[in-house]
Amino acid sequence: MAADVPRLYLRSSCKGNPGPGGWGVVLEEADETTQASGSMPQTTNNRMELMAAIEGLLLLPPGSDVQIFTTSDYLFQGITQWIHGWRKRNWQKKGDAPVANADLWQALDKLAANYSVRWLNAKGQTLAGLEEAGKLAVGAVEIT
After folding, report:
1. Which is deepest, 4, 8, 66, 141, by most CB within 10 Å?
2. Looking at the domain assignment, is residue 1 inside a domain?
3. Does the model's pTM come out above 0.90?
């Protein structure tokens, strides 16, 4: 991927877990920045993180290269490690328990296959895009 690859920054927020939740996305590409956010009245932080990834990818045309920055271990490990086994086991965890949020994982898996994605764990990093995405997520919860 070239240095000018679009960058997606993802964040989520919940008041209670479960409770009202929001997601925020900042897309930086070339000289443009696009922001998006959304909310649900009853959800979890993990579901909102998955929604941020899905909605963020939808901002780009299929076939795009993209770097995705997340602070969520759940999203990062899920999409880079766990998902391979879940697919093989028909969306079951070891021991035949269903994968939590399988509907969103399956949607993200199908969508991400249309892009060249580099997933980056940005936990503990201070990046302006992450900060702004966090504000968007919190703001989305406030209007829920």
Report:
1. 8
2. no
3. yes
